[in-house]
Amino acid sequence: MRIEPENNSVSIVLLGSFNAAIFHPAWFVANNLLSKNNLESSEVEIILKEIAVFKIGDWLRIQVVPDRFIAETLEPPFVRLSDLVYKTFREVLNHTPIFKLGINRKVHFTVGDEETRNKIGKMLAPQEAWGEWADFIARGKDEKHGGMISIVMQQVGIDDREIGHIQAKVQPSPLIKNGSGIIVEVNDHYEIPKDDALDGAIRITDILSKQFEDSIRRSEWIIDQVMALKEKV
Amino acid sequence: MIDQTAAIGMYFDKEANDITDNIEDLVFKSLYQGIANDYSARQKHLLNLDDTISDRADIKDIFKDKLPLQPREVHYSISVLQEWEGYVVSISNETFTARLVDVTKNCTIEDEEADFHLDDLEDTDRSRICPGSIFRWIIGYRRSLGGTKDRISRIVLRNLPSWTKKELGKNQRDAAEWASKLNGK
Amino acid sequence: MRKLPPDSDQFEITLFGPGYGESAVVHLGANRWIVVDSCLDTNTRKPAVLEYFNEIGVSAQEAVRLIVISHWHDDHVRGLSDIVSSCPNALVCCSSALTQKEFLAYVLNYKNIMTQTTSSGVSEIKKTFQILSEKRLHRCAFAIANRPVLNLPAEGTADSCIVTTLSPSDKEFDLFLRGIAELIPPPQTKKRAPSLCPNHAAVALWIESNSVKILLGSDLEEKGDALTGWSTIVQSAERPQGRASIYKVPHHGSVTGHHNSVWSDMMVKAPIAVLSPFYHAGKKVPTEKDATRIVMLAPESYITTQNPIPKTKISRSSSVERTIRETVGKIRAVQPSMGWVSLRNGGKSRPDKWDVALSPSASLLSALCGGTD
Description:
The complex is a heterotrimer of chains A (233), B (185) and C (373). Chain A is α+β, with helices and mostly antiparallel strands. Chain A is 32% helix and 33% strand. In chain A, strand 7 (140-141) and strand 8 (144-145) form a beta hairpin. Chain C is α/β, with parallel strands linked by helices. Helix content of chain C is 25%, strand content 25%. In chain C, helix 4 (80-86) packs parallel to helix 6. Chain C is globular. The chains are: A alpha+beta (233), B alpha+beta (185), C alpha/beta (373). At the B-C interface, strand 3, strand 4, strand 5, strand 6 and helix 4 of B face helix 5, helix 6, helix 11 and strand 16 of C.
């Protein structure tokens, strides 16, 4: 990517049926999924029957609710996250019904100044398309003005999957304070038919192991397309 | 949509002192509300029924300090300039030699080799490294919110799946069948 | 690289390496070829043998009569499955130890270690045996001591020719399977398949026609055991008699592949010797001592490349280069560019007159003598 991000993350999201209560760091250690050192540095936010959230530094955050498992990392090498999720649902919880997988790559980056960001927003979502309302959008008040706040593009019919899509969302970044920040998040989404969900863990982890690195590479390429707009405005 | 696999992107808008809404967030919030209701109902069951605890907890009461989807306070960001995957060829007292595949260039054949210091490994990795172990080596920049920038080099052993008895047993059976085929039996 | 194929009555041996291994092709006359092992050209990443056949206008599909597999680890046989696929009419020969369930279980255990990058170490041999078991069961021959595996009649101006495997011995067969059985992985994190040393599946070959005898030494090592290695071959009463004039020196010229009696009893005086070097974990063979020893026995010895191990050819950003220097000092390229040595004789009229062609990196082995390792 041509611009060094201010913030960088990768997450793996699984949709299926999960028993949140088991997802304690100690359980991960007991099943050789994490090391004892990780246990010592873990911070449990909440563990209930319906929800589990803990983190280990900035390299791992796990969030689980009955129908969703999310693993997120801010630290490369990102394949470490994929290894953890694969091992969890292939070796230990391989009977978990899972039927959707998302591999998500998100970056916040700055384009230098707010004016450049506004120009990029207008390239992605030309205000003129909104006809007479465009004037009202462009008007501001008290240093605030209207414009694009979110845009999502989707690609379907992708050869490497039966069901799924790739979505890229672009938004202004609230984390970068001078109004020059943009978030691009790419969601690489895979599904198996719900009827196959019983061996879903096996099938989904197969997809994860085959696709993860290519997915990250492709997502970074998509993000770079947006970054390139800085040079075009 | 609750069935989307995009990671939830909730950002705490400090000015509005509320959680920025989008469709996913609204649905997720209602899920938490359900959990909160159930949680408070259970609390009521355990406590005196005449207690004046509200019978409907709000999300913020249960999760107020622990709302999992608070934006993470990120103090730094790491950009990777170069990444290799390596496998250990040999280990001596203080070093190990490894063959390297350039992941950044999307190579698949190990073209390079280097000698690493065992001290550069994390303690847990140092205790489990052996010939054949597979790792990732990244070089990049770590940038903090304060603006400082450091070059980093990090070696991380991959925690690949383990062989299981079931898998080894299956492989034995498959191997016997394969051998029969190859030997024309 | 040569541009034309050999004449019908010419013998040729061309050795390629290093290239994640070594491989050789031998022309037995009348466009009948054998291929021994496989390696990739480090520049093109394609099997060196197939690239060579392309260059000289030989159809691998039609011309290759025998493929000999004497290695099984990825470090030595990259591209082997491509060669087997490209030569559907060839007989495939290897130690039968490689087709036993112990070895196949080893292959299955290590086949998929879930990395997208590094190979498992046994990917190539697995693909190769899958091709064999799916397509051509009847075209395999097992290498054992003193077994003729290919017997070609005279054809046109070409003499008849017999190819005999000299190894492995019965004891080597047992040792191989025992060694492999010890590599059953414990229930721990998967890792790359280890290699076994010495290579008890090595297949030494004796190639003989009326006028030419060639000994291909593979990786066969000598351990001083009368029932293994070169000792058992030299002492065998059943081995093909006669003396070879061409010797592919075993085990990259390492002293572990040396046996005095091979030179004194199986080779003519001062044969032509060829070998390719091998680099591993910063060390290389042949050493200067090895080179001196071989040159004393065969002054006309050739090595496929005498290039020293280069620093990596890949250039990276200055930040990355600085960090590399600070962390590991330097990164070495695993292999220098692949080289080759090609010998063609003068056909029926001058069978002992060998024309030598060398790649730019190849040289007389004597060039390695007298320098530093």
